[in-house]
């Protein structure tokens, strides 16, 4: 993909695959879209998929599978214990990561549950480059707390820094010195740092963290859910890795870690998860929880068909032509939006294109959830479903005060190999229209606010009826067009 130049000089992300199965989409009319988002409490999680044109909510469990993955599903060995399918998966993970032990889980957060139950005790701290929602929830549920020690560059929304997911090594050392090593449950690095715009860390940064972990005898845990994107960026952007294969980079990364866990809803383009461990001691500590929460040790809540697809998907992750489609489509979308003066996270990361709602809706205060309001407005304007990644995705503090997020983002995920370039162009077009009319968009307030992970099923309403005005402007500008 990256090596194909167009005669025209145009920078076009060219797909190295073809589409062989399609799903028909529905684009409901704009007045229907307003009704649908109202019924969904202005929460895009509560929309019905039949009412969504481009589902950019997430890449989780919705990446396109390859023909080889589909074919492998047919030869799955359906047995509760000792399945050949499981053996193939375990062998593939050992081959790719070089860590000997594996525990299967039904998805990524299930791995986080087990890790947190075993490693986090009351009062303990988990330093990390940045949190993910479910990760933080499991750590705090077990009495621990999260310390985000991302480098300052990570929180700059617009930047040219190639590795905004890096951890600040000085802050890590200071944190361990301040609290003492016994208070540190483990050090966690998240590949393709989700909540700050799918930003990668460098291999060098991971090696530096390993040195600190060795000095204080700390465990280094890698959340590899978004590893594919991070691997691509390391190969593209890190000078010393340019001549290495994706497989070699993966091996070098894994050799630095004690534990690697992942959501296979992202990594490997299937559905499931698991924990790879370096030592038998760690494996034995966690093993008992797998049959309790997940299922027997040779499936851990995954279907055998998904395990077969995952085994093939992991191997395909080692192929640069398979993992570059997502980041290159995202870069195309980000570049086009930047050209139009629309605020997005730069440089383009993995996972999706992230609109900076704090800037896009500068007139909407954080207490009125600008990223949530933008998600609602974009659905009305386009039938596109994005995901709020801002204050709504945070939890209130123990006194019930709002915790304002560092960034107010509307994440528009590009599940791997799912959308065509004309659909991406449609998204760019409707976002541009919305940006022109951003003054019409107002804030949101809760009607129903759950205590835990409120963004999943909380319900909100618009403050001062702005949605009708947006609808009227759309109808005025687009006439009969959907
Ligand atoms: N870690 C990271 C970095 C993730 O992005 C996710 C899920 C998980 C852990 C949990 O994995 O969903 O399989 O239980 N991210 C999804 C998303 C939900 O939409 O970004 P899971």
Automatic annotation (TrEMBL):
Could you say which enzyme class this protein belongs to? lyase
Molecular function terms from GO = tryptophanase activity
Write down a Pfam family by its short name: Beta_elim_lyase
The cofactor required is: pyridoxal 5'-phosphate
**Residues recorded as bearing N6-(pyridoxal phosphate)lysine in the entry:** 266
Q: From which domain of life does this come?
A: Bacteria
EC code: 4.1.99.1
Binding partners and assembly: Homotetramer.
Family the UniProt entry places it in: Belongs to the beta-eliminating lyase family.
List the PANTHER family: BETA-ELIMINATING LYASE-LIKE PROTEIN-RELATED (PTHR32325), TRYPTOPHANASE (PTHR32325:SF4)
In its UniProt entry, what is this protein called? Tyrosine phenol-lyase
Native organism is Candidatus Competibacter denitrificans Run_A_D11
């Amino acid at each position: 993909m990256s090596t194909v130049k167009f005669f025209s000089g145009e920078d076009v992300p060219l797909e190295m695959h073809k589409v062989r199965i399609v799903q028909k989409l529905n684009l409901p009319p704009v007045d229907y879209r307003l009704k649908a988002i109202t019924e969904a409490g202005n929460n895009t999680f509560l929309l019905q998929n039949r009412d969504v044109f481009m589902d950019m909510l997430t890449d989780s469990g919705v990446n396109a599978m390859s023909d080889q993955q589909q074919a492998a599903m047919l030869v799955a060995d359906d047995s509760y214990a000792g399945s050949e399918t499981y053996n193939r998966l375990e062998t593939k993970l050992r081959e790719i990561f070089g860590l000997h032990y594996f525990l299967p889980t039904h998805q990524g957060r299930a791995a986080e549950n087990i890790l947190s139950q075993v490693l986090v005790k009351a009062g303990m701290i988990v330093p990390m480059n940045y949190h993910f929602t479910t990760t933080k929830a499991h750590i705090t549920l077990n009495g621990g707390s999260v310390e985000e020690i991302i480098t300052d560059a990570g929180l700059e929304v617009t930047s040219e820094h190639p590795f905004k997911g890096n951890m600040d090594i000085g802050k890590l050392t200071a944190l361990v010195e301040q609290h003492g090593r016994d208070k540190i449950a483990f050090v966690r690095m998240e590949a393709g740092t989700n909540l700050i715009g799918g930003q990668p860390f460098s291999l060098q940064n991971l090696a530096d963290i390993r040195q600190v972990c060795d000095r204080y005898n700390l465990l280094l845990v890698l959340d590899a859910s978004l590893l594919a994107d991070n691997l691509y960026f390391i190969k593209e952007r890190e000078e010393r890795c340019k001549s290495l294969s994706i497989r070699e980079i993966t091996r070098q990364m894994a050799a630095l870690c004690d534990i690697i866990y992942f959501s296979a809803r992202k990594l490997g383009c299937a559905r499931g998860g698991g924990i790879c461990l370096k030592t038998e001691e760690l494996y034995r500590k966690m093993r008992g929880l797998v049959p309790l929460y997940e299922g027997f040790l040779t499936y851990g809540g995954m279907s055998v068909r998904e395990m077969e697809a995952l085994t093939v998907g992991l191997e395909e992750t080692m192929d640069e032509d398979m993992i570059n489609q997502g980041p290159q489509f995202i870069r195309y979308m980000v570049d086009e939006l930047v050209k139009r003066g629309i605020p997005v996270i730069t440089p383009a990361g993995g996972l999706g294109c992230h609109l900076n709602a704090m800037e896009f809706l500068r007139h909407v205060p954080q207490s009125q959830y600008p990223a949530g309001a933008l998600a609602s407005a974009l659905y009305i304007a386009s039938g596109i479903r994005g995901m709020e990644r801002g204050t709504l995705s945070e939890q209130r503090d123990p006194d019930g005060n709002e915790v304002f997020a560092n960034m107010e983002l509307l994440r528009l995920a590009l599940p791997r190999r799912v959308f065509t370039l004309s659909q991406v162009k449609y998204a760019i077009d409707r976002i541009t229209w919305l940006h022109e009319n951003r003054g019409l968009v107002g804030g949101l307030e809760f009607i129903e606010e759950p205590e835990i992970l409120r963004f999943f099923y909380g319900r909100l309403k618009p403050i001062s009826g702005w949605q009708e005005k947006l609808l009227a402007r759309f109808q005025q500008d687009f006439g009969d067009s959907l």
